[in-house]
Design brief:
This protein is 57% helix and 0% strand. The N terminus is likely disordered.
Length: 279
């Protein structure tokens, strides 16, 4: 809803009325000068002016473009990519196996800064992280996978009949320190590989989408993207059409939450608005 305009008066502000005796004491010439003065235009607040709204398809295409990457990355990751090259495998621009996604979800759900969490997920250099990875690997071998080499967690889907609520309970049972936030992170990304979960978006991500002028539910976003599928920037996405749709959907979610976490929503929204005007 656009902000309301100030209810400024239509004409010149009224002067306080005088009694008849005071009015008669004022010279007639002075009265005429006052009556001939042009009326001043009412002052209106600039805050009441409606803001331009970005086109949703333009916003999605901007999020899918390489130009949006720096807006959703922590500063240290941006510097790392500059120093080590664009081929560096990073969390914000890569696809991982289900085991790797689960590992990242555990680390990223810690109550620490997002930048530090992404750095930990990439370097895995801290002792605490190393210990947790050993425990997680044991859980996968013993309870979540089909042997030492299984990184796809198909056992979770099979034993839970592809039911996300049951899958969450199983993961929480066997993965130490995996709570709601971690499950939201895992679910947001794993739906690219687990079709039964698609479309899924947690509340934190939906809030980020709305700040960019995009739909506030996963179903509405999917419907919008399906309707404008041929207009979307699909360069770099592989697989059949269903696989592409899930991967594109996940990338839009990831870029939106990244932009929000880095505090860049206003800038990205402005860039999308400029793109809308230029179309």
């Amino acid at each position: 809803m656009p902000p309301k305009k100030d209810n400024a008066p239509a004409g010149e502000p009224k002067l306080e009325e005088s009694n008849d005796k005071e009015a008669s004491a004022v010279p007639s010439k002075r009265k005429a000068k006052s009556n001939d003065a042009p009326a001043k235009a009412p002052r209106r607040s600039g805050r009441g002016a409606p803001q331009a709204q970005p086109d949703p398809v333009t916003s999605i295409n901007h999020l899918l473009s390489p130009e949006s990457l720096d807006s959703c990355r922590p500063k240290d990751e941006i510097e790392d990519v500059k120093n080590r090259g664009s081929g560096l495998r990073t969390y914000s621009s890569s696809t991982f196996s289900p085991f790797e996604e689960l590992m990242c979800a555990v680390i990223l759900s810690r109550p620490i800064s997002h930048a530090l969490a992404v750095n930990e997920a990439r370097t895995q250099h801290r002792q605490k992280t190393a210990e947790e990875l050993v425990i997680l690997a044991d859980a996968v071998v013993d309870h979540l996978g089909d042997g030492d080499e299984d990184v796809n967690l198909e056992r979770v889907q099979r034993e839970c009949d592809h039911d996300w609520e049951k899958e969450k309970e199983m993961l929480k049972k066997y993965v130490k320190k995996l709570g709601k936030t971690g499950l939201d992170i895992f679910g947001r990304r794993i739906q690219a590989q687990w079709p039964a979960l698609y479309p899924f978006a947690d509340q934190r991500t939906l809030s980020g989408l709305q700040k960019l002028g995009l739909p506030g539910t996963a179903e509405e976003l999917k419907k919008l993207m399906d309707h404008h599928w041929t207009e979307l920037n699909l360069q770099g996405f592989e697989g059949n059409e269903d696989e592409k749709k899930r991967r594109v959907f996940v990338q839009v979610l990831e870029r939106a939450i990244g932009v929000d976490l880095q505090g860049n929503a206003d800038g990205v929204r402005a860039e999308a608005t400029i793109g809308t005007k230029n179309d």
